[in-house]
Structure formats: C-alpha cells, structure tokens
C-alpha cells in the first residue's frame, strides 16, 4: 500500500536556523523540525509541507508575515530558480555564522569530538565572481517559466545553455548572466549559444541522447590564461570547426581551446580523449611563485584566492621545521605537496588520477622542487605497510580527501603509521567528523579552522589539526 503523504499547512512559523545541506529550519507545532528552502533565519512564514517523515517535515514558505533583518537583495536575476547560489538572499556575515556552526555541530554531533576553542571562519574577500571553473550544459528543451507555459504564445526558442534545475536531470535553465566567474566567462557562454542557434547547430536532447552540443567548460586563471572546452555528442566536423573557429576569432585571449566527442550516456570526461583545437592543451595557475599546469581533467581548487589562504593555513598547522617526512594524501596535481616542500625534508604525494600525477611531476620539475615524490592509485591500495616500508614513516600526514571522506582502511593505516601530527583538510565536515571519530582514541583535535571557499552557497571547507595523544 502506498504511504499517504498528505500536505499540511503550518501558520506563523519562525525560521530559527540554517545549515544542513543549505536548508533553513523552522519548528512544527508538534516540535518536529521543518526543513525549508526559500527562507532566511528570522523570517516568519506560513509553510506548506512537501514531505513528511517520522522525525521531520520538508516544506516551502507560501506566505511571508515578516522578513528577517538578515536578508539582503540577491544580485543574480536567476536566484530562486537556478540551483547555484542559494544563500544569496542572506547577508554574508550571517552565511559565515551558519557555516561555522555547521562545522562545529558536525564535529560534535557526528564525530562526538571534544573541540578546542575554534578559530572564526575565514571569509572570502571576493563574494561574487570567485570561481575559476564553470561547466554549463546545452539542452534543446530548456526550463520554462509558469507564465510561458500558461501563455497562448507558441514557444519556439527551446535551446538553452546553463545549469540544471535542482532535482531535474533533463531541464536546463538558460543563463543570461552568472555571478560566479569573471568575464569573459559570460561573454563566451552567450556567444557560443547565440552563434550555435544562428548557424543551426543542434543542442543536446538529454532524453533521446542526441544533438551536437553537449557542454561547455570555461577555466580562468590568475595568470590571465583561459581554457575553453566544448563537449560534442553527435559529430559533425563542419559544424564543430565552425563553432570552434568562431570562438577562436571572437576571443583571441583563449589560450587553450579544446573539444571532446562524447557519445556515452553520461557527460563525465575523465574516460574521454580531449583534443586540442588551438593553443595549448593546458593553462597555468600561479601561487607564491609556484606554477601549476592545469589540463581539462585536472582538479584545482575552484576559488584560487581562497585556495591560497587554505594552503597557507594548512602549512601553518603542519608547522614544519625542515627535517620532516610529509605525506600528502589525495594530492591532486601536487599543489599542497609543493606548497609545503620548501619547509620539509621530503614530501610524498598520492592521488588516483594518473593525469593529475603526471601534472604533479611536471609541475615539481618546472618549479625546481626535487624533494617530492608522487604515486598514482587508489589510496587504500597504495597507502599500505609495504609502501611505508619503501618510502619511510611520515612525521606528518596532510590529507585532503574528496567529499566522501577517507576509506576506513585509509583511516586505519593512518592510525597504524601514527604520525605525530595529522592535518585534515575537508570540503565536507560531516564525513570529516565520521573519520575523526575513528581516530579519537589516538588523536586529539588541537585546532579547527573553517575556511569559506564558496560564498553564496552553504558549502564550507574545514582544516583540523590532530596531535597524537
Ligand atoms: C579535494 S581534492 C584535493 C586535491 C589537492 N589536495 C588540492 O588541494 O588541489 C581530492 C583529490 O582526491 C583524489 N581522489 C579521489 N578519490 C581517491 C582515491 N580513492 N584515492 C586517491 N585519490 C583519490 C581526487 O582525484 C582529487 O584530486
């Protein structure tokens, strides 16, 4: 029998908190939590529930009785529809407050950790236009507004280049201006879209998996270099060259113009051949005199300015004296490894993406750093006792895993190796807390430093320093 999910209305609900997955929080008359999407803490609203569970409701505000003084005017015309910057209507100082609270709550509630006095979150100087990488999707069936659907007019312009509507894999919002990446990002996206329409190139149809244009990636760098990559599905050489040549002529500042022909079901490019159409197949990012080569598949922190702050804090937490062996787990293109290398005897980096490790090695050579070694493979298979026997017992481990956190075998291996200090950098304090709980019999949390890499969103980075008990 299907469970009835009857919608309910609660009146005059005060929104009291924000955090988990970017949702705001109110209380139902029976004390149950209501997770809301379109409010700011301090608003008083009527709520229509959309989901009912044993311990909580989900809902949306339908009537606003009063607006919170934490509110600010969102800058983006797509706010509320686009899945991107969902906290734009909350003042930045309040965003920071809730991010800090989220980190501390996760460490205490999930990790059951005793925390030292935490340092205030480090806010980002740039609160808009801070991203160095954006990916936009093409679609021939764009998201339409209610007025468009209800109007009698026939809608002929269904092509879109933009972002997925939250929860809808086949609907793309056509973006006019995005506030996340500096220009010429918007100009390139609009030109690509308009030129394609004018010249009859077909946009991807996600349901039937056809169409020429599939996605557009733009990477900017603090060096001024610019990478643009178009992902095609159907392969039409004439049209492909037409649109790429137009980009090349219209934006001579593009230093790396790439494409990929991907006819798989999903649009990840990691198993695809990237072809260089003009310029180089990579760009360079620079930090503290170090140069980092970035190709289309490389991971690089998306907020470059704040990444510098993150790395400086990581290095400060490691507090190296010069005679230590450091392991940099999940090293990516070896950025942290190279960043701390000057202060260490030797750094060993491990990462699963072969291209990233190739870049890490090339970067180290270019930066004339000869006390780093890089190894490729799945962490739990590489970071083993045998590996330690060959490469030495680390004095310090720096670890910066992806959102899912560390595999439990990796945590066990860290405990076995038992370095004096562990610096754990994470973009997901919930999985970080889960991992730290497994380590708490052997390690004490000495410092906690949240860093905001992603203003206008609920995401937050966190650095924890652990010392052996
Ligand atoms: C958050 S990024 C950190 C990268 C790097 N520390 C930096 O700041 O640029 C996580 C990295 O872990 C890598 N990774 C993900 N799963 C992995 C695994 N199972 N084994 C090894 N590396 C993995 C990803 O490819 C990515 O480069």
Largest sheet strand order: 9-8-7-10-11-12-13
Beta-strand percentage range: 25-35%
Q: Which sheet architecture does the biggest sheet show?
A: 7 strands, mixed
Structural class: alpha/beta
Describe the structure.
The N and C termini lie far apart (54 Å). This protein has helices at residues 92-110, 146-150, 185-198, 237-250, 304-318, 335-341, 354-366, 379-382, 385-391, 408-417, 429-439; strands at 9-14, 17-18, 24-27, 33-36, 44-52, 56-66, 133-139, 160-164, 172-174, 213-220, 226-232, 256-261, 275-279, 282-287, 290-295, 325-329, 346-351, 372-376, 396-399, 421-426, 443-451, 461-468. β11 (226-232), α4 (237-250) and β12 (256-261) form a beta-alpha-beta unit. A seven-stranded mixed beta sheet has the order 9-8-7-10-11-12-13, covered by helices on one side. A seven-stranded mixed beta sheet has the order 18-17-16-19-20-22-21, with helices on both faces. The protein is built from eleven helices and 22 strands. The mean pLDDT is 94. α1 (92-110) packs parallel to α11 (429-439). With 469 residues, it is an alpha/beta fold. It folds into three domains: 1-71, OB fold (Dihydrolipoamide Acetyltransferase, E2P) (Beta Barrel); 94-127 and 303-468, Vaccinia Virus protein VP39 (Rossmann fold, 3-Layer(aba) Sandwich), CATH 3.40.50.150; 133-287, OB fold (Dihydrolipoamide Acetyltransferase, E2P) (Beta Barrel). The radius of gyration is 24 Å and the shape is globular. The site of S-adenosylmethionine (SAM) has 18 residues, from α6. Keywords: Methyltransferase, S-adenosyl-L-methionine, Transferase. Belongs to the class I-like SAM-binding methyltransferase superfamily. RNA M5U methyltransferase family. The active site is at residue 427. InterPro entries: MeTrfase_TrmA_AS, MeTrfase_TrmA_CS, NA-bd_OB-fold, SAM-dependent_MTases_sf, TRAM_dom, U5_MeTrfase_fam. Residues 3-63 form the TRAM domain.
């Amino acid at each position: 029998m299907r469970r009835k999910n009857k919608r309910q209305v609660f009146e005059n609900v005060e929104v009291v908190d924000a955090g988990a997955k970017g949702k705001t929080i109110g209380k139902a008359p029976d004390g149950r939590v209501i997770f809301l999407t379109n409010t700011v803490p301090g608003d008083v609203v009527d709520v229509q529930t959309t989901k009912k569970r044993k311990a909580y409701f989900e809902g949306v505000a339908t009537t606003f009785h009063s607006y919170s003084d934490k509110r600010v005017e969102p800058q983006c015309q797509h706010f509320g529809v686009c899945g991107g910057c969902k906290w734009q209507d909350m003042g930045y100082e309040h965003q920071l407050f809730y991010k800090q609270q989220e980190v501390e709550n996760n460490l205490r509630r999930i990790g059951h950790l005793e925390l030292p006095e935490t340092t205030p979150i480090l806010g980002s100087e740039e609160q808009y236009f801070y991203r160095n990488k954006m990916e936009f999707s093409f679609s021939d069936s764009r998201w339409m507004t209610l007025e468009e659907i209800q109007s009698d007019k026939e809608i002929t312009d269904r092509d879109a280049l933009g972002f997925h509507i939250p929860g809808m894999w086949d609907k793309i919002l056509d973006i006019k201006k995005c506030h996340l990446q500096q220009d010429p990002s918007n100009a390139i996206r609009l030109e690509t879209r308009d030129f394609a329409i004018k010249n009859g190139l077909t946009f991807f149809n996600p349901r039937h998996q056809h169409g020429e244009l599939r996605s557009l990636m733009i990477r900017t760098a603090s060096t001024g270099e610019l990478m643009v990559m178009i992902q095609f599905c159907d392969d039409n050489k004439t049209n492909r060259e037409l649109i790429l040549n137009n980009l090349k002529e219209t934006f001579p500042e593009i230093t790396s113009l790439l494409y990929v022909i991907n006819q798989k079901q999903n649009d990840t490019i990691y198993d695809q051949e990237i072809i260089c159409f003009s310029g180089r197949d990579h760009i360079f990012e620079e930090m503290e005199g170090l140069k980092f080569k970035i190709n289309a598949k490389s991971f690089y922190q998306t907020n470059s300015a704040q990444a510098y702050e993150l790395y400086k804090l990581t290095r400060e937490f490691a507090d190296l004296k010069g005679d230590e062996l450091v392991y940099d787990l999940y090293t990516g293109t070896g950025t942290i490894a190279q960043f701390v290398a000057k202060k260490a005897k030797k750094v060993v980096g491990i990462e699963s993406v072969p291209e990233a490790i190739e870049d890490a090695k090339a970067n180290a050579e270019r930066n004339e750093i000869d006390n780093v070694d890089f190894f490729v493979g799945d962490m739990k298979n590489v970071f083993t006792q045998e590996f330690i026997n060959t490469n030495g017992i680390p004095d310090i481990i720096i670890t910066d895993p992806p959102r899912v956190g560390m595999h439990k075998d990796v945590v066990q291996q860290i405990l076995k190796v038992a370095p004096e200090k562990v610096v754990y950098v994470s973009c997901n304090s919930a999985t970080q807390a889960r991992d730290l709980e497994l380590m708490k019999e052997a390690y004490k949390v000495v410092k906690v430093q949240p860093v905001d890499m992603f203003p206008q969103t609920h995401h937050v980075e966190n650095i924890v320093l652990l010392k052996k008990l």
